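Case study 2.
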Amino acid sequence: MIGGVFLIFILFLVSQGIFKSFSKKHRFFDRRKMNYLFFYHFFFAGVYYTYALFNNSDSKLYFWRPKLSDSSWWSYFGTSTTFIDFLSYPFIHYFNFNYEMMMVLYSWMGYLGFLFAYLFFRENIPLKIKIFKNIDFLTLILFLPNMHFWTASLGKGAPIFMGLMIFAYAIKRPANRKLILIFSSVMIYFIRPHVFLFIAAGTVLGYMTGQEKIAFWKKLLIYFGMIGSLIFVQDTILGMAGLDESENLVEGFEQFSEDRGSELAKSGSGVNMTNYPLPLKLFTFWFRPLFLDAPGALGLIVSVENLIYLLLFLKILRKDFINFLKKSPTTVKMSLTVFFLASLAMSFVMSNLGIIMRQKSMVMYFLFFVIYYFLAQKKYDKLLKIKKYKLKLTARKQSELNSA
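Prediction:
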């Protein structure tokens, strides 16, 4: 326990150095908010740790598996669960981190995800938006409790969220941020290869259809980089679903989805989504549990958050959203593609509300980004109209004074 508390103090100091660096790069950077967010996130790290002490938790398996192993470090190099063991191995064996310290380390990875989410939003959307009358949109989504709970423990949740948000931040200026772009791509691929597929598809589509004037060589670099990466890792991605030897990928995926869904539906919080129509599958993945089907006290808390998701989603269910989407920049189209593809794939294989609560924390920020940008664009257009009206009014008064 003492080691974990000491590590929090060390990581807090490291975070201050990171804040200083970003303060120089971005004038908008709010160190006070990021410090609040640090302590808020580690509060949920404490909540999750307490929960893990009295309940079954995958975090214990992620600690003890490499801890008790006689295998070498590189024997763990691989994708999915194996890669988490690979990341943990040197800290456990070479630096003698105990369980609490590993929980703190991975919680900090989750915190870095929120830090880069903040940078991703603020760099692309300079306008501040109030939601639900007087609540700052960005502050609201940065402090959603469910997001922090599932990214504050030893496991896949924290590093995959960190990788996704670093990627989202880096893709804005790939030439200047190529090191963290490569790092985040590697993290995403080795933790969840299928998510890397969604990221690559979203990036290519975004650069193909975005409204910005981007140099041809930059587009070509992105196309070849992402498509080449997919070709290189296609066997691993297909192998995750047992489709690497399938002659018919569509039928193979349908069979995999049915088997996986049936398996997950057997648990206490399972829902039989096999025969759900697609809209209901997506609704379940995005917004359930929703009070009536909440699994326990945690489910009730999550239901409040899901209601917020639903209310935010309703903000884009308007006619002008389609026109906005057609004229939207690369980051918006990339975010929407990643969110929709990931939701589509996972809604077919997820039939457990507990797992759904955990899994969707990976991609919900991409939806939030689209909603935020849409509302900011509407506010900007409104401000532009007011400015033009004032200029016309001023010009008319000046004309009347001159004529007088």
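The chain has two domains: 1-16+25-191, 192-373.
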